[in-house]
Amino acid sequence: MAASVEHVEAASTATEMDKTEAPETIRDPETSDSEPAGQEQDPDPDEDGGEPPGPKIRDTPQDIRLEAIANTVALHPSRDLLVCGDVDGDVYAFSYSCTEGENREVWSSGHHMKSCRQVRFSADGLKLYSVSRDKAVHLLDVERGQLVTRIRGAHGAPIYSLLLVDENILATGDDGGTLKVWDMRKGTAIMDLKQHEDYISDIAVDQAKRILLTTSGDGTMGVFNIKRRRFELLSEYQSSDLTSVALMKRGKKVVCGSSEGTIYIFNWNGFGATSDRFAVKAESVDCIVIPLLKQILCFTKLCLSSIRAINLLPNRVIGCIGQHVGEPIEELAKSWDSRFLVSCGHDQLIKFWDISSLPNTTVNEYRKRKKKDGRMKSLTKKAHGDNDFFSGLVEETEKKKEEEEEEEEEDDSDSDSGSD
C-alpha cells in the first residue's frame, strides 16, 4: 500500500501549556506570604539573618512520573528539554531542571493511534520525528507540539526503529525486516529494501552519512550504502537477536548488543565476522549510549532494570549507573551537555543519572575481584536505589574496601590481566 503524506496546516490537537496559565508551584509553608496565625510573627533579626531559604538545588533533576509506560525518550540537542513516547501513542515534552520543583510539562500530542516506539530530535532541535505501531511517521514542531507532516502507511508492518541521517533524510525499520530511507522534502522513500528475516531493532550511520548499519532479531547486522542506494552485505549469524548498534573509537569499531547479554565487536570494513566479543553476564543488552565520541566508555541497558557502564578494549565492567528497581528499562538517552543519562522504564518513571565524571574514569588493565556481597561498584549516588538513607556512609565504606582490594590485586595483576 502506498504511503500517504499529509502536510498539516490547521491547528493541532496537541495541548500546549500556556505559560500564563501554568499551575502555581507548591511552596514551602516557611516561604509562603500568607502564613497562618500563631507562627513566628516577630523573628529575631539576629537569628540567621531572617531570610527565607532559597530553592533546593539537586545533583540531578527529580524523577518525572508518567501516566503510562514510556517506550522511548530523547533529549534536545541544545537545551534542557526531553520528549518521550508511551504505549498509548501519546508524546510528551518536559523541561527539566536541577532546581527542585522546576520540572514542567511543556506540551503533549496524541496523534498516534497505537504505541509510540521511537522519538528523535532533528540536529537543530526544531523538529521532532516519531514512529509507531500504527505504521505512521510523524513530524512535529518542537516549540508548539503541533503535527506538521504525517506519512500514513509508511510501512507494511509496524515500525520498530528510527534514525535521522541529516535534516532531510531519515531511516526507518519495521517488524518484518524492511528498511526504508525517506527524503522528507518529497515525503517519499528513496530506498525500500528487505534483507532481514526479523524485526530491525536499531539503526546507525557513519560520520560521512554514507553507510547505514542495522541490527535485527534474525541475529545479523546489515550494511547499506545510502549514496548508491543499495544493500552491501549481512554479517555472519549470531546465536541470539542483535538488539542495538553503535560506532566507537572514532568510527573504527562497531559494537552490537544482543539478547543473550553479549556485546559483539566488528572492525570497520570488516563487517562479515566479529573481531571480538564481550559477555557482560546480563540477560540482555538492549541499548548502548556513548558518552563522548573520543571515549571508549559505553552504557549498556539491561532488561532486568539495571544500567551499567562498561569499557571496551580492554573489556571491563566498570560499575552500576542506576536502576529502575524491579522493573525493565526501555531506553536510555544522553543530555546535550553529557552531564546526565536519562532512562525510562516500566515503573512509569523517567530518571536522571549524573554521569559527568565518567569520561574521566581510569580503567585498570587487570580484572578486579568481585565484591563479597555481589554488589557492583556504584558510579552514581542513586546507583542502588533512591531511598537508601545511608548511601553516603555506604559510599565511603565501599571506597575504603576498593582501595584495600586494589592494593591486594596489584600483587597478582600479572596473572589476571591476560584473559578476557
UniProtKB/TrEMBL annotation:
<comment type="similarity">
    <text>Belongs to the WD repeat WDR55 family.</text>
</comment>
<dbReference type="GO" id="GO:0006364">
    <property type="term" value="P:rRNA processing"/>
</dbReference>
<keyword id="KW-0853">WD repeat</keyword>
<feature type="region of interest" description="Disordered">
    <location>
        <begin position="373"/>
        <end position="420"/>
    </location>
</feature>
<feature type="region of interest" description="Disordered">
    <location>
        <begin position="1"/>
        <end position="60"/>
    </location>
</feature>
<dbReference type="Pfam" id="PF24796">
    <property type="entry name" value="WDR55"/>
</dbReference>
<dbReference type="InterPro" id="IPR001680">
    <property type="entry name" value="WD40_rpt"/>
</dbReference>
<feature type="compositionally biased region" description="Basic and acidic residues">
    <location>
        <begin position="16"/>
        <end position="30"/>
    </location>
</feature>
<dbReference type="InterPro" id="IPR015943">
    <property type="entry name" value="WD40/YVTN_repeat-like_dom_sf"/>
</dbReference>
<keyword id="KW-0677">Repeat</keyword>
<comment type="function">
    <text>Nucleolar protein that acts as a modulator of rRNA synthesis. Plays a central role during organogenesis.</text>
</comment>
<dbReference type="InterPro" id="IPR017422">
    <property type="entry name" value="WDR55"/>
</dbReference>
<keyword id="KW-0539">Nucleus</keyword>
<keyword id="KW-0698">rRNA processing</keyword>
<dbReference type="InterPro" id="IPR036322">
    <property type="entry name" value="WD40_repeat_dom_sf"/>
</dbReference>
<protein>
    <recommendedName>
        <fullName>WD repeat-containing protein 55</fullName>
    </recommendedName>
</protein>
<dbReference type="GO" id="GO:0005730">
    <property type="term" value="C:nucleolus"/>
</dbReference>
<feature type="compositionally biased region" description="Basic residues">
    <location>
        <begin position="373"/>
        <end position="382"/>
    </location>
</feature>
<feature type="repeat" description="WD">
    <location>
        <begin position="152"/>
        <end position="192"/>
    </location>
</feature>
<dbReference type="InterPro" id="IPR050505">
    <property type="entry name" value="WDR55/POC1"/>
</dbReference>
<feature type="compositionally biased region" description="Acidic residues">
    <location>
        <begin position="403"/>
        <end position="420"/>
    </location>
</feature>
<feature type="compositionally biased region" description="Acidic residues">
    <location>
        <begin position="41"/>
        <end position="50"/>
    </location>
</feature>
